[in-house]
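Note on ligand handling. Small-molecule inputs were canonicalized before submission; formal charges were left as drawn, and no protonation-state enumeration was performed. Where a ligand contained multiple stereocentres, the stereochemistry in the source SMILES was retained. For S-adenosylmethionine, this procedure yielded the string shown in the input block below.
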Amino acid sequence: MDPSTTAEGDEKERGSFVERLLASTGGAFDIFTIYIGDRLGFYRSLGEQGPATSGELAARTGAYERYVREWLEQQTVAGILRVEDENADARSRRYRLPAGHKEVLIDRDSLDYLMPLVQLVAGAVRPMHQVLKAYRSGKGVPYPYYGADFREGQAGMSRAMFLRQLGTEWLPSIPDVHQRLMSDPPARVADIGCGGAWSSIGIAHAYPKVQVDGYDLDEPSVTLAQANVAEAGLGERVCIQRRDAADPSLRGRYDLVTAFECVHDMSNPVGALRTMLSLARDGGAVIVMDERVGDRFTAKGNEVEWMMYGWSVLHCLPVAKADVHSAETGTVMRTDTLKNYAAEAGFCDVEILPIDNFFFRFYRLKALCR
Ligand SMILES: C[S@@+](CC[C@H](N)C(=O)[O-])C[C@H]1O[C@@H](n2cnc3c(N)ncnc32)[C@H](O)[C@@H]1O
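Structure output:
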């Protein structure tokens, strides 16, 4: 007999579910207390200025000592910080950020930097009441409702990978695209749904001749992207504009058209892909990077779907539904879904590129089949 159908099986299942939810509660507290430590500069101070007592950390960061003390104790019990002498008086105890946690929490150039993920989660729950309403009404929740945390978290998560891998590993692995980006006359790149524009910046850094036009629908993202471009000193070669990718009046002739992790967010993905097809000059390449989800729904999901479904339920599906007409894609955009969108947009084939990444899959959309 199947143990899950017996009373004993039920009890075991209940016990492990209770354990799981308790662990998840601890995980949620990790996320939101780490968020506090980041926003108030506690980790940066401990990492850069060294260990501190609650009073010292409060003085360094301009916070209130009693709150800081509670946070330091909580972070220690949670295993995120270390205390030098746990038996010391509460105000004399000195806390430090362990070396192994430093890179993850404060080094924004590291591929292991996960603070933006924490910020994204904080952003994802910001419009919870609007999300609940949307589930009932069938309407959507506009992207700006998720606020600066979501926008900046998204850009922060992308930053290191686009600066360190896009132009040095991923694009060089596509010989004809790499060759074109290196050669004369200087190539033109359209980066659709560019968000904070780290992909545009990464391409411009890696290929010193190219001109990149980044397009995004969200005004605050465009402002953020323009600031990032200016800070990177690339204002001459990277231009960011607010445009809807599905707007057929978006014109240009580009050697490479990219869409990083945004097609599934679009209310009209077919319209956007149609624009991308028209933007690619003869021989121009169209590359889409999206989530590396499984080929079909399975009860267990593949190794990234637990996370992708989480984003989808809270953010991507409600955002994609903010327009009156929506393809209602969601984060879990499977390969066949993209292939169908691409075919409807007029592409003749979709190739999966041999770029190895845990979270993302890279597609090359072909205009012509030879
Ligand atoms: C998940 S973010 C990805 C941003 C960026 N490509 C990255 O990888 O960090 C999705 C982006 O797509 C943009 N977007 C959604 N629909 C769009 C549309 N129709 N036209 C242009 N951008 C759009 C959003 O504003 C958002 O910045």
